[in-house]
Amino acid sequence: MVESVSTRAPFREDEVLSVWRAPWVLRSTQRSLKPHARSIVGLVALLAGCAHASSPGRGGLAGRPGPVVDPNAEPAEPVAPHDDTPALNTEYFLGTRESEAAQFAEFARQIQELQRKASTEHAQPVQRGFHAKSHACLNGELRLDPHRDPRTRFGLFANGQENKRVVARFSNGVGWRQADGELDARGLAVKVFGVAGTKYMSDEQDTQDFLMTNSPTPVGRDAVEFMEFARANANGRIAGLFFLAGHASTAAKALVRTNAVDSMVTERYWSGGVYHLGAHQAAKYSTRPCDLRLVREPARDGEDYLRKDLAAAAREGVCMTLYVQLQTDPQATPVENSSKVWEEADSPILPVARIVMPPQVVEQSATPACDQLAFTPWHSIPAHKPMGHINRARRFVYEASQALRRQPPAP
Question: What is the helix, strand, coil percentage profile of the chain, to 5?
Fold first, then answer.
């Protein structure tokens, strides 16, 4: 069934001609037609994407309603790499499909090796490969913004969708438990329940996960660099500094944001990687407090001060606004270079929902139910399918990490 997300007027002839005269469009059209031409949906998406890209820096045709597309369409698969300008809404293999499969299998082996290493060196049970320490999981609801941009109305944000129950997990970034004052990334993972549709993972059939950290970009432009960092970081701070020295242009933006923070509920969080928002467009997600004036300055007394502050905030209620950014230009807002910040001047943030966590009591110690939850960007419906090399790798790395930590301990 094809759903019209709006009653937009057709493009004027002068708009279409101006788009097709753009040099990068002429160069990319031949490449783009092949992966998209298998469906009418793809051709419509191509034209719409070109039109949005004709005004980079202003978010394309900002505020214009989106195209008519099948809301349940399966996004296109990655295509072979090339030396020309990339196309909108397009993923590219880092090598070939076969070489990526072998590479991801090796990453899965490496993450389990790092988990065992961390368990031994820190005298802790096997933890998540990343974001091992939970501060708390808060219950809440995803409440859609009734005024959300028509271009964002796909997947969970489509017309006719209802508010849904969520669990939000706040965490530190490394794969072992350490004091909250240590240098580290901070994470917010949101699991939405009651989500119908085709799923990519078999372990959960009614959920959609959104994973974010308090940096606009992950460490590295792709999964190769990220796993290099993970191995270096596991070997101590000096090894991490050597990694940074060799990857300053692609790692520094994330690593400079690893200072201690005052509160988990005043931070801003970004998805880092790219996701579909409907089969026809690429997007990133971010959250920040509903009240932009919110300030919390707890005493940093003890290894778990962030948990204590989160428990105090939970008693009053917590609210975060969820935003999307739409890809407007394949170079300014790329899919396959995760280290490139999508600047808001190129792609403005568009509010789509609020994550409302009403007043609640957080237990004094971490609960097994929170720690047992599994989060992965591949708990997803097609309308929010992960994109890019770093996200394709996460499917295998997260699955391997989960498998190891759920193994019963050796006798």
Answer: 35, 15, 50
Which residues, in sequence order, are CB contacts of 293 under 8 Å at separation 6+? none
Return the beta strands (E) in 228-349 as ranges.
269-270, 274-276, 282-289, 318-326
- Residue 388: which of 273, 219, 254 has the closest Cα? 273
Are the C-beta atoms of 398 and 226 separated by less than 8 Å?
no
Residue from 153, 112, 146 nearest 5 by CA: 153
Per the rule left: phi > 0, alpha: psi between -120 and 50, beta: everything else, 160 is left
CA-based torsion, 92, 271, 5, 53: positive or negative: negative
Query: How far apart (Å, rounded) are the C-alpha atoms in residues 376 and 201?
Result: 9
pLDDT, position 397: 98
Strand partners, 137: 169
Token pair for residue 301?
């007394």
User: pLDDT per residue over 260-302, tens digit each?
Assistant: 999 999 999 999 999 999 999 999 999 999 999 999 999 899 9
Tokens read off for 399: 């699955």
Closest CA to 272 of 188, 341, 184, 349: 341
Tokens of 31: 């490449």
Q: Is the pLDDT of residue 18 over 50?
A: no
So what's the pLDDT on residue 71?
A: 80
- For 108, 158, 223, the CA distances from 396, given in Å and listed in that order, are 6, 29, 11
DSSP state of 357: E
Structural domains for the chain: 97-405 (2.40.180.10)
Question: Between helices 23-36 and 13-21, what is the axis angle to 10°?
Answer: 100
Question: In angstroms, how far is CA 309 from the centroid of its own chain?
Answer: 25
C-alpha–C-alpha distance, residues 245 and 29, integer Å: 39
Per-residue tokens: 172:
């530190």
- For residue range 175-198, list pLDDT tens digits in order: 999 999 999 999 999 999 999 999
